[in-house]
Amino acid sequence: MKSKRLLVPYVAWMLVFTLIPLGVVVYFAFTDAATGRFTLENLSDLGVYLPIFLRSIFLSLISAGICLLIGYPVAYTIAQAPVKRQRFLSMLVMLPMCMSFLLRTLAWVAMLEDTGIINSVVTALGLEPLPLIRTNGAVILGMVYNYLPYMITPLYTVMMKIDHRLVEAAQDLGCDSTQVFTKVILPLSVPGIVSGITMVFVPAVSTFYISQKLGSTGTTMIGDVIESQFKTAYNPNLGAALSLVMMILIFVCIGFMNRFSDDDEEGVVTP
Amino acid sequence: MKRFTRIFTILVFIFLYLPMIVLAVASFNSGTDIALFKGFTLSRYSELFHDSALLALLGNSFLIAVLSSLIATVLGTMAAVGLHNARGRLRSAVMTLTNIPMTNPDIVTGVSLALLFAFVGVVMKINSILGFWTLLIAHITFNLPYVILSVLPKLAQMDPDLEDAAMDLGCTPAQAFFKVILHDIMPGVISGFMMAFTMSLDDFVISYFVTGSSFITLPVEIYNYTKKPIHPKVYALFTLMFLAILVLMVVMNLLQGRDADRKMRKRGART
């Protein structure tokens, strides 16, 4: 019983540095930058940013979809491997996440640039250089590359737990390998799919830097706008309003996604 | 089909490590353009070890990572033990609090803490509050959930009679914790610490918002670099850090493997 007291420092810390800061965001979103009075102007000014919001959601959903298509067979292959190799492979999936995200993105810039690595190969073959960088495709590539591990890990965690006797039972009852997949493995991996999509979508929709480096002014994302409000335009009130709307958007998305899986198990990233 | 998914998986792993290869190759490049390999040199590495400013930034990153992950590990392990014994509404309330920084995008965590610190700065009449302490607080905050979520499962696996047995044999609750419980959950504590450490070492987004010019870490400086051409010694640093993290993860992997083997044997002995 007494051990509940051990929670006190943690709960106090989290209240002060997690919950109260969110309250401060709400406070800033509803106050005027100059007078400090209550206002709805910051929120009503957000209409201009609607196209950017929509673009961020659109690009992130496409990235999450591509991550699912790429990540699913990879997670399945890892889950089928012998246990020792499984541990090693899932470590290899996780490793890139520990390395500087900025430098890895810069490496993609070096590959995709007009005079970059890919284009120097293309021109050496006597072809016209390809327009790779400063496109929606480059931004999606950057997001897929950066967030793919967040898709593979929860998928693998769920697939690893699938009872192999279920697969055998399905085979005994006359399922061919396609039916085993569509009737047993796919339905059982839905929780992994849901948490994978969430774990890719949330960082993707709020990202900044990727679109600054790989995109153009036409691919600005909402994270870039928030960053500029705090770092260059010095309008924290508008930045807070943008953050607030993005937070609500993400909570709605997560709530919507969770309706697809009644399983409350979470695909938390653990190495 | 199986062969196809296997080849596909190998291609995805190549995709994941492509930027690492580009950066590692660039660290041996005698030219300064990352996309154009002029010739082989090791001078980038000696330049790196003579650049005391860059090494000082790396030192800052390590200082914050060590301090924040140690504090988070102590606070988080205490909280996990408390949470393990909590039930009902208290438990679900604390879990919700733990999940806030996990589901909130990094940019919102960074912005909300930056606004809190700005608020406190105004109240306390401190001009530039952003620096070492604000950075440390932010890192502890985002590290805490990782520790809790990796210790909790270990507590759940623990035999609940062990604590009672220790106390029956005359341990005080504190002795029972340090001699019995802590020993049993140690793998979870260590992996929580390691995860917090790597997250903290590489964090850019949150650090970028909560630190000022008085205390800068390596990722924040790399972001400032990217506005001007980046010096190749940074690639040398990246390559060395990649190797260090690779070794760290392989060691962790082997330790976890040993832990799993031991558990297997224990289970075998019991039945």
3D architecture notes:
The complex is a heterodimer of chains A (271) and B (271). Chain A has 271 residues and is an all-alpha fold. Chain A has a single domain, classed as MetI-like (MetI-like fold, Orthogonal Bundle), CATH 1.10.3720. Helices cover 70% and strands 0% of the residues of chain A. Chain A has helices at 7-29, 41-44, 50-80, 83-94, 101-112, 117-124, 136-160, 164-172, 177-188, 190-205, 210-214, 222-231, 236-258. Chain A is globular. The two termini of chain A are 32 Å apart. With 271 residues, chain B is mainly α. Chain B folds into two domains: 1-41, no CATH class; 52-239, MetI-like fold, CATH 1.10.3720. Helices cover 80% and strands 0% of the residues of chain B. Chain B has helices spanning 2-26, 43-50, 52-85, 88-103, 106-124, 132-157, 161-168, 173-202, 205-210, 218-225, 233-270. In chain B, helix 4 (88-103) packs across helix 6 (132-157), helix 6 crosses helix 8 (173-202) and helix 7 packs across helix 8. The longest helix of chain B is centred in the last third of the chain and has 38 residues, at 233-270. In chain B, 39% of the residues are buried. The mean pLDDT of chain B is 89. Classes of the chains: A mainly alpha (271), B mainly alpha (271). At the A-B interface, helix 1, helix 3, helix 4, helix 5 and helix 7 of A face helix 1, helix 3, helix 4, helix 5 and helix 6 of B.
